[in-house]
Design brief:
The chain is of the alpha+beta class. The chain has two domains: about 100 residues, Hypothetical protein ph0010, domain 1 (Glycoprotein, Type 4 Pilin, 2-Layer Sandwich); about 60 residues, Hypothetical protein ph0010, domain 2 (Dna Ligase, domain 1), CATH 3.30.1490. Helices cover about 25% and strands about 25% of the residues. It is built from four helices and eight strands, in the order H-H-E-E-H-E-E-E-E-H-E-E. The strands form two sheets. The chain has a four-stranded antiparallel β-sheet with strand order 2-1-3-8, with helices on one face. It has a four-stranded antiparallel β-sheet with strand order 4-7-5-6, with helices on one face. A hairpin with a 2-residue loop joins strand 5 and strand 6. Helix 1 crosses helix 3. The longest helix is centred in the N-terminal third of the chain and has 16 residues. It is globular, with a radius of gyration of 16 Å. The protein starts with 7 loop residues before the first helix and ends with a strand.
């Protein structure tokens, strides 16, 4: 896919990881980005796939940087080189990578799984200092029970422990 027609969120994620992997540089926020990327703050997840398989996914539940653009740059690099489930992306892989960027909307507390819709909402589970998040609309996650189970596993929370849940929507850029 040519980068000219690419979504600016996805293009920024690609530029950030490519610069880091090839030159060891963290890019500056480029000119010409949509205003919301520069003025708004949000949690952002960057997912990377290679040949249809997950290659990295790192994000922030809440904003940690001054704007969405900075959040994307940092999380794209982390997704490509710091996801503990995968070895760091190598320069010869860059052409094969497909990116998506999820910008999280504000989470809201929920009382039961009945308030979840796996296509529309992601879920955050919390118990004490442990938390786990699962994005919405993921392949192979078909029920709220599956979604919560995976989030609990990610957090290291046992299903019989007391935990709270929040749901959130995302704007997915591909």
């Amino acid at each position: 896919m040519s980068t000219k027609s690419q979504d600016p969120y996805v293009k920024l994620a690609r530029m950030a990881l490519e610069a880091y992997v090839t030159k060891g540089e963290i890019i500056k926020v480029p000119e010409g980005l949509p205003e919301e990327m520069l003025k708004q703050r949000a949690g952002v997840f960057v997912s990377i796939k290679k040949r249809g398989q997950l290659r990295g996914c790192i994000g922030t539940i809440a904003p940690t940087r001054e704007n969405i653009a900075r959040e994307i740059i940092q999380n794209a690099i982390s997704s490509g080189v710091h996801d503990p489930r995968f070895y760091p992306v190598e320069p010869d892989e860059l052409e094969e990578l497909v990116y998506s960027v999820d910008v999280l909307k504000e989470p809201e507390p929920i009382g039961s799984m009945d308030e979840l819709d796996v296509v529309r909402y992601g879920v955050i589970v919390r118990a004490g200092r442990r938390s786990g998040l699962l994005l919405p609309n993921l392949e192979g996650v078909d029920t709220p029970e599956q979604q919560v189970h995976i989030a609990l596993q990610k957090a290291g929370i046992m299903p019989f422990e007391k935990y709270s849940m929040e749901r959130f929507e995302v704007v997915r850029h591909v």
